Queue: 3 jobs
Job 1
Amino acid sequence: MNRHIHTETHLVSRIGWLRAAVLGANDGLISTASLIVGVASATPTKEAIMIAGLAGLAAGAMAMAAGEYVSVSSQADTEAADLARETRELHDNPESELRELAGIYESRGLEKSLALEVATQLTKHGALDAHLRDELGISDHTTARPIQAALTSAITFSSGAALPVLVAVAVPPALATWSVAGGTAVFLMLLGVIAAKAGGAPILRSTVRITFWGMIAMAVTAGVGALFGTTV
């Protein structure tokens, strides 16, 4: 009989970069488009629009990268502290840790004897991994990766921000406001579809959510810029 090994690829493995990617692209689109629309409404010149767009792209990408790196590094520090504490407890009191692990499995529905057997076997094959996964909820899929998050945010922010900049370059300054707003709405819908496909979410819900809130944020920011004759 032929034996086939089926390797599954789970969507949860994308959590680490998907959140940063969607956030970066969404923020790049909205913030840069809002900046361009605000400037175009107040000072409709090609030079002012381009300076605002490029400055927003560069500053936003760096800010996103720095913010993601700092926040995810804080998560990584917390995970490292938990790992060190769990390692110490396993060394100092292994029997208590074994009972604790067995109690976790028992609370999930295993009989007491079976829970103890499972805990014993897993402890033999990697006590620390078992405690990190089943006691603390830390796994390879959810482990904090600061550099990955920072790079993903910077790249996707730049990609999202470049789209309204390119639209502003392609049209006369007098048409920049509505052209950038309309183009951004289309880009947000595409982002919603891509995010849904990557994350396995319903396409319509994801698209409506990203487009609606993105346009609200852009309208408010652009409105303030137009009202006061400056950028926000």
Job 2
Amino acid sequence: MPSISIEELFYWKKKQLSKGGDPQSLSLLLDSLGGITKNDYSLSIISSKDNLYLKNNLDYLSSIWDEYLTNSSPIQYLCGITYWRDLKLKVTDKVLIPRPETELIVDIVFKIFGKESQKLFFAELGTGSGAISIAISLAYPSWEGIATDIDPDALKIATRNFIESSEKSNLKFSCGSWWSPLESFKGKLDLVISNPPYIPRDTYDKLPKEVKNFEPKISLLGGEDGLIHIREIIQKAPLFIKNNGWLILENHFDQGEKVRQLFIENKFTSVEIVKDFSGIGRFTIGRYK
């Protein structure tokens, strides 16, 4: 393994950031492909350690950073990992990069069910990297869950992420579109969660190139008005969710009222629009009957 002094690494980081980009992305690159975490770096400075050891040399890391800056390639895909809540997740261009605001879905679950809860059965529709389901399965080891996705490649990634994040077996994975893998669980689900594709077509066409050119279109585009998948999920939910069971959806920043109305039309009560960190109505939740 190539070694490098703290001083060399400091100046290398300074040089890379002078080209562009942000410190968090550079830290992800150093961690995933360089093998040096922020904690390693800080401890080495404090202890006046002479050298750190790299998984890959600085020329290689510089080339990845240049690709990130030149092509607008998401740093998470170039590194093959992302951090979400307290999880380290494998990601490829087969799955959407989980966003910080989506972390609030797990907090909404905590608010509804408390930090400790009796055994329940939950499902996530369109799991992608598996982030949400894995976080819930870890927080509630007595629960049983099933995470679905239409893309078998995405499910392989989600399954691997679960295996690497947990020693439990309380989360299963099944391939299919929305409710179709859950036909044998009608009327049995206590909680259903989904962060479906909800971007309207005209908005999708204007997305930044680092999103539109790299992240899977199937995970983003929600039809002309962005609600085609949300409608299907809500309209079929009463077949699968128990009485008093909950549905939690993430939606586009301006869809909250329309989604709330869809919940009410399909016999959901306690319907609420929940705001994200920016004060935007990002989530809609409701209880079935």
Job 3
Amino acid sequence: MNDLIQVVDSPEKMACAGRQLREIVRQKEIAPNSVLEVFERWAAALDDRELHEVPGVTFLRLWLRRGTLEPILLRELGPNSLNGGWQADGRARLQAFPLGVVGHWPAGNIEIQPILSLSCALLGGNCCIVRVPSGLVGVTQRVIEKLRKVDRDGLLSERIFMATFDHSRIDLHEAMAQAVDGAMIWGGAEAVSQVRGLQFPHWARVLVFGPRLSAAAMDAETWGDGKERSSWCRRIARDVWQFDQQACSSPQTLFLERGAGCDPDEFVKDLRQAFQEENRQHPRLQVEPALTSAICLARASWLLDNVDNRALFPASPDWTVLLGTGTEMPNPTQGRTLSVLVVDDLLRAISTFDGTLQTLGLGVKDARKEEVLARAAGRSGVDRIIKLGRMHVFSSPWDGTELIRPMVRFVRHVPSQD
């Protein structure tokens, strides 16, 4: 397994990779601290000009830092987990052991997702089989090559088998499922359903991150403050631009609370300026024809549906702001298309949310008011509630579940001498 991304064309090759990885887990223990040391070097290596244009790499560098991951490890695996070993639990003791081999089925529209997914399993001491979607092979290869350079002893590299094969090869999906002890599945409804339907071993743990949407909300006191409005608009633009609005945590709709003396037109003017500036700093290098068509259709439909609707956008499909009213989120267009809806009551908008909404970005000045909104959002199925500008801060729990703990086994030992 010298090449970290291999074209797999037979179930036997997948099964063989699984057996080799399982033997590595059985023979070689690795403490979270050792993983963090390699991750830290990997993060530094990713600060390379040739990778700056890859969406999400800036975020990936921050994610792999010890300062990001160590608190997650301590919270999920216990205060003394960094060096591995047993932890006291009354008269007994506990230790986190890896599941074994964890399979990863990342979505094909987020460039760094194969790396994000496998990093969670590696922190639990597991080995990984990763199916890299065909469209992400080039990007993933560039990122994983940086790991090879800094992982001098092959500590993590030997624990990773990255495979690419056509999504229609059910036999290879089945072989991969049979080779693992756990799975992390990401993507759209159809892809997730297909992978969940595979015949995993009966002991395998399956963690699913299915398709989700995200929204943002601001109270009138916040967005109506002309002195701070530009700063808030820049935060919103940053959330929209990261991952080109394709991530589950990308805001598709912004709800503005109506307020006396607050003019939504003034707000969208500042938002347009923030979008223009973000577009200058991070221009889109290319856009698929289908996305261009979807953006043009969204602009036209919005203006034709209601004479009171307005829209701001350049001649190109670089970005779009659709201004209107209502509490129902429109169907997402993506492609840096943000619907801005003025509502009388933010609670009414939140009451329309269901389990499809993952993240709610907030800009609210009154802490007591935010508490009411946060509790309402939690009851309505929202898993993450966070300040605008930080909607893509990847942390645990994610989608309401932990990231590392599900892929380990906590073994309880009561010494026989007692």
